Amino acid sequence: MSRWDVFIVAILLTPFLFSVGGETLRDMENSFFTSARHDHCEDDYEDDEAGCNADSECIWEEDDDEWECEDRDDSDSSDSSDSSDSSDSSDSSDSSDSSDSSEPNGGGGTIPQDNDDDGVNDDIDDDDDNDGIKDTNDAFPLDPSEWSDNDGDGIGDNADVDDDNDNVTDSLDAFPYDENEQFNFDGDSLGDNADDDDDNDGVPDVSDAFPYDSSEYIDSDNDGVGNNQDDDDDNDGMSDFNDDFPLDSCANLDSDGDGMPDSLLAGCVTNLIEDNDDDNDGVVDSEDGELDSDITIIRDYDRDGIPDDEDPDDDNDGLEDELDAFPFNQSEKYNFDNDSFGDFYDPDDDNDGVNDISDAFPFDPTEWSDYDRDGIGDNADDDDDNDMILDSDDAFPLNANMNSDWDGDGQDDRFDLDDDGDGVPDAIDAFPFNSTESLDTDGDGIGDNRDNDDDNDGFIDLIDSRPKVAGQDDEIDVSPTDSQLDNEGSLTIGPTFLFVLVFISSLATLGFSIYRKKNKSILENENEL
Q1: Which listed site, 254, 453, 495, 518, has its alpha carbon 20 to 30 Å from 73?
Q2: CB 322 within 8 A of CB 313
Q3: Tens digit of pLDDT for each residue in 147-203?
Q4: CB 433 within 8 A of CB 406
């Protein structure tokens, strides 16, 4: 037997030996002194009640319907026991109160804090709330639900309904993090405050009578109706179709088509010059007795020498009238969306809400963008960025360089250092795409959170004192190994080992006590017989 075996056996038997020795000595003491006092009181005062009561060591009391002189210690033993119990209870209570009132850390010291319960004290933890944002960059280092406060109002951006504090709620704010911008009418990259053409119609806002209407930009008669929609632009009471001067309210008729009005409205200010030969016959109207009767006026809109009723292209724009949506408008030929504006001046030819200048398909109302420029509009294209990954499976359908984002944090998985967003970097995460698991101690493919035997040593974690280390303190080896000895050769015993030793020793002590009491009871019964 080695010296360690002897040492361990000694530890094992010490409580038992103390118990046996103490029990034996107590019985011997009680037997000797009790016997002596019993003989003194009972023998000397057998029938002498007065003498018994006068002796401080004796007491006269009834026992089994007979009065006799008994040893006073025997009579007081039960009271003493009760008093002892009460005293012990009181002492225990006092001790408990004293313990409760003491400092948790022994009094006087500062308790280390670990806000996120990750096992790393806050004073050395660089992310105290474990939200993936380092404390140095976290406006709320102890709140895992917040990390930024754009407007510095003390309310985190996640909870704040107005992140830039511009009095426009984020849900209505086109620029929720820019206090100088709130709206973006034309949907370009500039807010309306900075944008000099808010409706993106090509006419600067300072010159646009309708800065927020891409279909209008001028209102000649200032009646609130843009010229494109107004059928009487000069508001002279004659429709533009019949008005030879649709933008000048001072005149409306030019009989000979020479560009000079037959007459001018009295008192009206205009740059037009009144025609003094309305029929263009060489005789001024004041001397022409047969005004308009001696010639036939034939209209020729394009003045090409061919009367309009014979000219196949009245506005001489190169498109025959039968195909021309605007046969008397040299600047317009087509009207794709059949609105009141020709395609040349119409800012949105297909009327899809996207101005032609920004529309990849200006004549297709179902398409307006083509991200990968493959000729297929993004609405019909099932791979908008042409990265060979279908948009339905692509986390970044408009970025050919990125395609997956497992945790939905806006970072591509190839560049995201924590793909599952569980606060554990992928480099040390056994399950980088499972936010509920990060460690697999035994490498069995089951994460420690779900595995009931993390070290796979056959002992479930519930009863395993070291669930992350296989074979440690789970089997009792009374002979210490080299790993159980420190550099000086001293035995190192784990808590489980000591617990087992004390448990076995206690069982032995309890068994011996039961045996002693049972044996004593048998002996007393035999003595009474």
Answers
A1: 518
A2: no
A3: 999 999 999 999 999 999 999 999 999 999 999 999 999 888 899 999 999 998 888
A4: yes
Three-state helix/strand/coil letters over 39-74: HHHHHHCCCCHHHHHHCCCEEEEEECCEEEEEEHHH
Listed residue (383, 384, 351) closest to 369, CA to CA: 384
CB count within 10 Å of CB 96 equals: 10
Q: In this structure, what is the dihedral angle of CA atoms 380, 385, 387, 392, given to the nearest 10 degrees?
A: -50
Q: Is 386 helix (H, G, I), strand (E, B) or coil?
A: coil
In this structure, what token pair is assigned to residue 213? 């209407």
CA atoms within 13 A on the CB side of 85: 5
CB 20 within 8 A of CB 512: yes
How far is the C-alpha of 19 from the C-alpha of 6, rounded, in Å? 20
Please list the helix, strand and coil fractions of the chain in percent, rounded to the nearest 5, in that order.
25, 5, 70
Instruction: Output phi, psi for 71, to 5 deg.
Output: -65, 130
pLDDT over threshold 80, residue 82: no
3-state secondary structure (DSSP) of residue 68: strand
- Residue 319 burial (CB < 10 Å; 0-12/13-18/19+)? middle
Give the residue from 121, 127, 124, 158 showing the smallest Cα distance to 142: 127
Q: Which of 459, 458, 438 is nearest to 449 (CA)?
A: 438
| Residue 74 binned pLDDT confidence (cut-offs 50, 70, 90) | low
Please name the residue that has the structure tokens 């001072």: 250
Q: From CA 371, how far away is CA 280, in angstroms rounded?
A: 60
> Using CA atoms, how far apart are residues 78 and 57, in angstroms rounded to an integer?
16
